Amino acid sequence: MTSTFVKNVGGDDGEGSAGNGLLCFTNCLLAMENGSLVEKDLWIDTSKGIIVDSQKTFFQLRERPSRIIDLGGAILSPGFLDIQINGAYGFDFSIYTGNDEEYVSGLTRIASRIVETGVTSLVPTIITQEQSLYPKLLSLLRPRKTKGGANLLGWHAEGPFLQLAKRGAHEPTLIRSAPKEIESFAETYGPELSATPPVVNGKEDVYVKIITAAPEIPGILSSIPALTRPLLSSSSSTSSASSTSSSEKKEYGVTFSIGHSIASSDIAAEAVKSGARLITHLFNAMPQLHHRDPSIIGLLGVSPAFNSSPSSPAKVQTKTSGSMTPRVAGVKEGKKTGIEVVKKKLNLASSTPGVVSEAISELPTPPGSPLLNPHTTAPSRAASISNLDLLEEGWRPYYGLIVDGIHSHPNSVRLAYMAHKDGCVLITDAMAFMDPHLPDGIYPWRDGKNLVRRGYKLFIEGSDTLAGSAVSMDSCIQNFARFTGCGLGEAIKCATYNPARCLRIENKKGTLRPGADADLTVIDPVGGDVLSVWVDGREVWSRE
């Protein structure tokens, strides 16, 4: 099925001065925060670029939209978020040639083109670098809006504080520990580590900062509480900075992610207790599940038997019936066609056999049972259970999943989702070769090596070693629905609300709440294809 668009049913085109800037999407299924699809209209203010409360706008402000778009039964979703992406469309976030303009041009190219995959916000990810490069790269990766393109929300530094044995594609000579604890982080990343969010129209905007590190490395675990301490406002932050210069007293507002690690269950649990909120590309670059010590993967299955309280966290509830959304002139009741097709089931996809990898691994890696860092004392069973005591069900971290059918078997994807649905975050971990229009073939990479692209699969020529992914976010969502058997609405939640909540930006991104940014993706309810994309209340891409 292909949804049909009937634009401007009841007003002008919304672009000129004749309209009031209000736009109503009708005859659509809204992708809700709980994973459901609800037949309901959505109103946005195109002049402010935000979603508005239709009832308040109509009944209190006495205004109705000057423009209406009939989506013909399509799904209207928050724009997709990709919080781990290494590059796309020929540009690699980790490569800096010394030319700022060239680098910014690459950022703009990705932002303007990636919207075709439904992504309206992304967090550029850089792998382990020379220490001197971090301040420059992170300053260039400050949040920025691009005209007609996706929003760049900040940065994800994957490294250099990683476990050498699980380094993946990271240069081993650049991997380091944190002997001075939080001060080592400040010295490595520079001023952007403690930078405050930009101010837009008098209000602080989003500034995402993610660090992937291995908690068993010396100096890392003790640094997590300081790194994850929420940022104060710009004014209070300035006042705080004047009173002390100690790195331990600063606020950084970092989302700490456990990754490229061989942490034991006890150390992983301690990291979450200390403030770690995310697991980087689950199953990859970490010990595999072992029944005696499930390590990082085991965080998804923290047993309720170890809870310090029998109570469960409150569930997010979304009203799905009894809506009092006012009718808009020009749209007749009873004309909601195309809704029933959402119930159509997708066929199960086949897996890709014979692929075993951790992105790139040119070093021997430890066995499934994790090996403790030589600086770490093996915890006693009593200590382990004490750590799990504080990991109530609501404390379980979010986890990133590369759902390309290559990095993780479909059965593994389903197993993780069944264990912890609300924590699932779809990521692409895409490389510069992610481009839906790029044909399969052999392409030059770096260090004199060539990469072979074969569908979503990227591997080094002459080997079976995987080198990141070429999958797009819309394909991840479609794969995820097939692999897990979940509904399309639930799959969409894993690329919208879940990542936004992980980053604590769910009031602005990944949601259809009134006041949130009007970043929207229109989706075919049968196949999950992206039909059109809106950023800040303006259409930036359409399949038509």
UniProtKB/TrEMBL annotation:
This is Metallo-dependent hydrolase. The keyword Cytoplasm does not apply. One of its GO terms (biological process) is N-acetylglucosamine catabolic process. It comes from Sistotremastrum niveocremeum HHB9708. GO terms for molecular function: N-acetylglucosamine-6-phosphate deacetylase activity. It holds the Pfam family Amidohydro_1. Keywords: Hydrolase. SUPFAM superfamilies: Composite domain of metallo-dependent hydrolases, Metallo-dependent hydrolases. Residues 438-540 form the Amidohydrolase-related domain.
